[in-house]
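hey can u run this one w/ 2'-O-acetyl adenosine-5-diphosphoribose bound, need the C-alpha cells asap thx
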Amino acid sequence: MKKLVILSGAGISQESGIKTFRDMGGLWEEYDINEVATPEAWERNPELVMRFYNDRRKQLLGCEPNKGHYGLAALEKDFDVHIITQNVDDLHERAGSSKVLHLHGELKKARSSVDENLIYDIDGWELKFGDRCKHESQLRPHIVWFGEQVPAIEEALPIVHDAEIFVVVGTSLNVYPAAGLLNYVRRGVPVFLIDPNPVDVYSKVTFIKEKAGKGVEILKNELKKYL
Ligand code: OAD
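ok here u go:
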C-alpha cells in the first residue's frame, strides 16, 4: 500500500459546524489571539482562556464528523493513511481514521502546568479551576499556544518525508512549523490541495477548489491511478 499523508486544518471540520480561524467570520475575528491562545494570556487572565476552550469543547461535543472526515478514513482500505492535523477536535478519530497525529494538542484533554507529559482526559465539556495533576498543580487545556514549542513536529517530519502521496486539506498554511511540512515532501511526490479558497503555495500541487466534503470525493477518484 502506498503511504498517503494528509495535512489537515480547520477547513476539514467547517462542514461539521466548527468555525475556522482566518476566514471571514472566523474565530480570530471574534477573539484576540493574544488574549486566549498564548501562555501570557493564561497567566494574565486564566478565567477567559478557560472559558474560551470550555466553550470550544462544549461545541465540539455537539458536532459530528462530516463527509470529508469519513472519506479520508475510508481511504485506509487502499492506502497507508497518516493524518497530521492542526485541529484540536477529535473528528478524524471519530470518523474512523486510525493514525492521527495532533500538532496543536487536543481539546478533550488537559495537561499539567508543571509537567507537560502529564496528560488527562477531560470528562464532559468543562475543565475547572481546582482540577489538578498528581503534583497538585492546576490543569490547563492541552493546546499548543502561540509562542510555544510544537513537540509533535519531530514525529511529523519523518512521516512527511516518507510520503508517497501528500494531501493538504482545509488549512490556510499560515501557521508554522505546520505550514513548513510541505517543504519536506520529497520531489516528485504528487501533492493535492483541497480548499474552496486560493492558498499560496510555492510547490506544484493539484488544486481541488472545493469544500472538503466534495473535495475528498474528487480526491478519491484522482487517487485511483496510484492504486
Ligand atoms: P485557518 O482558519 O487559517 O484556515 C482554514 C482554511 O480552510 C482556509 O484556507 C479556508 O479557505 C479553508 N476552508 C474553509 N472552509 C472549508 C471547507 N468547508 N473545506 C475545506 N477547506 C475549507 O485554519 P488553519 O490553517 O487550520 O492553532 O489554522 C492553523 C492554526 O491556526 C490552527 O491550528 C490554530 C490557529 O490559530 C492554534 O490555535 C494553536
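The chain has a mean pLDDT of 97. anyway lmk if its weird
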